[in-house]
């Protein structure tokens, strides 16, 4: 019976390691390769922690297996053999407290700049954001918002507000905190320029939601009463998934949307299309009517 | 413990759903049992059940994957075949064994879904009519050629009509409806699914055939585009979310299925009203018996009327024709609202004119929406009457479904039926169907009131639209920046334009 237990406790960690190794090829891993530079760095952090955990896990499980088999073999030879009893060993306690503490401290320090860049507004690549907005021809001054869109979560969809165009000059206006007559609206369809950092403001109309772009490794809760800036940079011009990652009610699963990263020209075209659509009055030929 | 475990195990094996079934309206229960049987029989024979649908060709739906005409260049048409038959001295149908034709060129008359492997091909006429359907293995859209699984029994003629995927749109629509819509709108489309009790406003009950947010004229129903727009963009301010990620085909399927449910529900509604009015509700029968008739004679009379083709059958026919015609007419270009003049520019002058109209006594906007547009006009305290003449128990405005409705607070900037100028124009021009919001098509008048030959103008409606746009923006105009100075500017509102 003791050999059964030895094998039993050795089998599960081995199975865990095998499943873990096989999972990328089974599609149980990340939702595709990271599609943004920051996402790659987040992945690197993940892999670093995974490696540390893997070494610890395999080490401790190998130790456990060794102790089990060794003890079983020893009692086979001599049934009265007693195990070495380590409880209360001061030295060992110090070792296994200090080593993990150093590891945790290292992780805490090592991830800091990625976290700061991701979450702290002063560490955002603001210069690059500004230059995108300038390339889009936005009429900006010093105080203009860096955000290019406002995403408002609501049960159960994403409503998006973009700044519109100046009716006189036709240039893109900056995003204002309050709705404007020129603003453009869309739902469940976020378009932004790709290949450079852009910022959006996240809000919620009702309960807590979470803005989740799995391929870009972006996840941010939308909290009632707050306007939360998020920045993102999509490497490729394509369509990504946009999901809600916070169980927000019975229709949570309905909050599926798309995020389309496109070239700056295409983005402006998209805004122009929205403008057309939003000003549609179904009068095909106004001259004809006037002539009647 | 063991019992609950067994129950769990059984339910896991069996699954927890029975087949979805259509439910009847509440009024159905008021009918005499034999009248209920008749209503049931009509609905069953023309609509079936969700999992066993009957496609009724009287309904103006795009229910098939595609309809097509067979094109055969080298194969003889009717007359040629006759000539050949005469020449050969034997009728062509006596060719023994199946002809080995497995490829057909089709001229598509309409297509709603993709044709692909497993699509059924049903022969509507020609020599193959009545034969079992053929099954498609491959469709080449470029050459318009379909390849079939088995050879044809006989050669079709040029011009034979076929249906590809009969009823397939509704079948797909039902599955999508079950996935996305059913939990609120219900299996029957009665707006009473399992999640409906938690919602305010209530999900739409399709069975009146009325949809609120349309861009069609007052007398018309919703256009297909109106329905698909609501599905695509959702209804902000309600629980109806946007289903933007549906493909075009999925959208078509859902819209057709919703229309089908609506037509079924409306037929049921009208038929029940008719039978009740004719005196076959339990209550009416009781009165008639009190007046001296016997139960048996009323029942015999009913059955006689059911069997008489000029009685109830004729009425069902009339109701269906009316429903079908109404829906079909609503899909035409004429049904759409077309403003006469383009939108009036969004200027302070236009907004001020709009505000004046809004406060105009004869238009009565403020009676419901309130003078300041907060949706708090005096009508919300008035007692409204139900269809049967009784008072509603709660004061306030009610819609055709009997739900309490609030006049819109115009300060929210939430436009349930869409925020395009044409949407707001339609709300004012045609009103909101099924609600107390009336149509204001009368605002279209001669540009010169003195001269009856002067062109029509609808600039008043556009001024109102501009005023409504301006309310949530506190009267700011494009280019102005309320953001930074918002706190100080409180109270500046639209009055500043006067």
From TrEMBL, chain A:
Entry keywords, A to Z: Copper, Electron transport, Membrane, Metal-binding, Oxidoreductase, Respiratory chain, Translocase, Transmembrane, Transmembrane helix, Transport
EC number: 7.1.1.9
One GO term of the biological process aspect: ATP synthesis coupled electron transport
Listed transmembrane segments: 46-69, 90-110
Intracellular or extracellular location(s): Cell membrane; Membrane
Cofactor requirement: Cu cation
Domain Cytochrome oxidase subunit II transmembrane region profile: 22-122
SUPFAM superfamilies referenced in this protein's UniProt entry, alphabetically: Cupredoxins, Cytochrome c oxidase subunit II-like, transmembrane region
Catalytic reaction(s) noted: 4 Fe(II)-[cytochrome c] + O2 + 8 H(+)(in) = 4 Fe(III)-[cytochrome c] + 2 H2O + 4 H(+)(out)
Residue ranges annotated for the Cytochrome oxidase subunit II copper A binding domain, each copy included: 144-273
UniProt cross-references to InterPro entries, sorted A to Z: CcO_II (IPR045187), CcO_II-like_C (IPR002429), Copper_CuA (IPR001505), Cupredoxin (IPR008972), Cyt_c_oxidase_su2_TM_dom (IPR011759), Cyt_c_oxidase_su2_TM_sf (IPR036257)
The family this protein is said to belong to: Belongs to the cytochrome c oxidase subunit 2 family.
Function recorded in the entry: Subunits I and II form the functional core of the enzyme complex. Electrons originating in cytochrome c are transferred via heme a and Cu(A) to the binuclear center formed by heme a3 and Cu(B).
The protein's name in its UniProt record: Cytochrome c oxidase subunit 2
Name of the gene: coxM
From TrEMBL, chain B:
Region of interest: Disordered: 76-95, 479-498
Domain Cytochrome c: 168-262, 349-472
Entry GO MF terms: electron transfer activity; heme binding; metal ion binding
Record-annotated membrane-spanning stretches: none
Record keywords: Heme, Iron, Metal-binding
InterPro entries registered for this protein in UniProt: Cyt_c-like_dom (IPR009056), Cyt_c-like_dom_sf (IPR036909), Cytochrome_c-type_DH (IPR051459)
SUPFAM superfamilies per UniProt: Cytochrome c (SSF46626)
PANTHER family the UniProt entry points to: ALCOHOL DEHYDROGENASE CYTOCHROME C SUBUNIT (PTHR35008:SF8), BLL4482 PROTEIN-RELATED (PTHR35008)
Name of the protein in its database record: Cytochrome c
């Amino acid at each position: 019976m003791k050999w059964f237990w030895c094998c039993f406790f050795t089998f599960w960690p081995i199975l865990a390691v095998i499943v873990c190794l096989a999972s990328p090829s089974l599609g149980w891993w990340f939702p595709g390769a990271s599609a943004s530079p920051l996402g790659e760095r987040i992945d690197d952090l993940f892999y670093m922690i995974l490696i540390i955990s893997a070494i610890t896990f395999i080490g401790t499980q190998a130790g456990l297996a060794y102790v089990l088999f060794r003890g079983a073999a020893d009692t086979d030879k001599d049934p009265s053999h007693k195990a070495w009893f380590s409880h209360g060993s001061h030295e060992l306690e110090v070792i296994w407290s200090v080593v993990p503490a150093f590891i945790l401290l290292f992780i805490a320090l090592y991830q800091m700049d990625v976290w700061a860049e991701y979450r702290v507004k002063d560490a955002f690549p603001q210069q690059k954001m500004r230059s995108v907005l300038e390339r889009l021809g936005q009429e900006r001054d010093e105080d203009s918002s860096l955000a290019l869109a406002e995403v408002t979560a609501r049960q159960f969809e994403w409503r998006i507000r973009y700044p519109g165009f100046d009716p006189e000059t036709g240039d893109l206006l900056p995003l204002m905190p309050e709705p404007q007559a020129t603003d453009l609206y869309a739902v469940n369809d976020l378009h932004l320029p790709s290949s450079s950092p852009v910022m959006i403001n996240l809000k919620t109309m009702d309960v807590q939601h979470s803005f989740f772009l799995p391929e870009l490794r972006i996840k941010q809760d939308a909290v009632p009463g707050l306007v939360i800036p998020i920045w993102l940079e999509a490497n490729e011009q394509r369509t990504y998934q946009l999901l809600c990652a916070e169980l927000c009610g019975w229709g949570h699963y309905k909050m599926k949307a798309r995020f389309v990263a496109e070239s700056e020209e295409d983005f402006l075209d998209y805004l122009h299309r929205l403008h057309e659509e939003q000003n549609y009055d179904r009068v095909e030929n106004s001259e004809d009517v006037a002539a009647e | 413990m063991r019992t609950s475990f067994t129950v769990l195990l059984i339910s896991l094996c069996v699954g927890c759903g029975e087949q979805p079934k259509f439910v009847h309206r509440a009024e159905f229960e008021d009918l005499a049992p034999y009248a209920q049987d008749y209503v049931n029989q009509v609905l069953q024979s023309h609509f079936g059940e969700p999992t066993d649908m009957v496609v009724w060709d009287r309904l103006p739906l795009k229910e098939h994957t595609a309809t097509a005409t067979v094109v055969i260049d080298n194969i003889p048409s009717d007359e040629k075949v006759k000539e050949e038959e005469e020449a050969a001295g034997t009728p062509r149908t006596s060719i023994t064994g199946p002809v080995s034709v497995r490829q057909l060129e089709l001229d598509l008359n309409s297509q709603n879904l993709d044709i692909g492997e497993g699509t059924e091909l049903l022969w509507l006429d020609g020599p193959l009519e009545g034969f079992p359907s053929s099954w498609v293995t491959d469709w080449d859209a470029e050459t318009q050629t379909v390849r079939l699984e088995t050879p044809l029994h006989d050669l079709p003629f040029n011009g034979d009509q076929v249906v590809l995927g009969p009823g397939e749109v509704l079948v797909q629509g039902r599955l999508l409806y079950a996935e996305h819509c059913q939990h609120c709108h219900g299996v029957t489309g009665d707006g009473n699914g399992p999640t409906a009790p938690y919602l305010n406003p209530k999900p739409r009950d399709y069975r009146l055939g009325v949809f609120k947010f349309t861009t069609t004229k007052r007398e018309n129903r919703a256009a297909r585009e109106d329905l698909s727009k609501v599905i695509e963009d959702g209804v902000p301010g309600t629980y109806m979310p946007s289903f933007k990620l549906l493909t075009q085909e999925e959208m078509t399927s859902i819209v057709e299925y919703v229309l089908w449910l609506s037509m079924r529900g409306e037929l049921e509604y009208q038929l029940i009203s008719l039978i009740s009015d004719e005196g076959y509700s339990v209550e009416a029968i009781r009165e008639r018996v009190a007046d001296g008739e016997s139960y048996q004679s009323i029942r015999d009379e009913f059955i006689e009327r059911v069997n008489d083709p000029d009685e109830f059958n004729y009425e069902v026919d009339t109701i269906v024709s009316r429903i079908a015609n109404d829906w079909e007419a609503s899909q035409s270009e004429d049904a759409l609202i077309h403003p006469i003049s383009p939108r009036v520019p969004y200027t302070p002058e236009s907004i001020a004119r709009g505000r004046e109209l809004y406060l105009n006594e004869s238009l009565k906007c403020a009676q419901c929406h309130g003078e300041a547009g907060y949706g708090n006009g005096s009508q919300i305290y008035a007692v409204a009457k139900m269809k049967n003449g009784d008072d509603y128990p709660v004061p306030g405005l009610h819609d055709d479904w009997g739900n309490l409705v609030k006049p819109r607070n115009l300060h929210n900037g939430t436009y349930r039926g869409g925020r395009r100028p044409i949407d707001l124009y339609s709300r004012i021009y045609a009103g909101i169907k099924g609600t107390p919001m009336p149509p204001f098509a009368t605002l279209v008048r001669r540009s010169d009131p003195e001269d009856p030959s002067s062109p029509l103008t609808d600039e008043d409606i556009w001024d109102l639209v501009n005023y409504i746009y301006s309310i949530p923006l506190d009267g700011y105009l494009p280019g102005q920046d309320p953001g930074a100075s918002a706190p100080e500017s409180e109270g500046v509102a639209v009055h500043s334009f006067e």
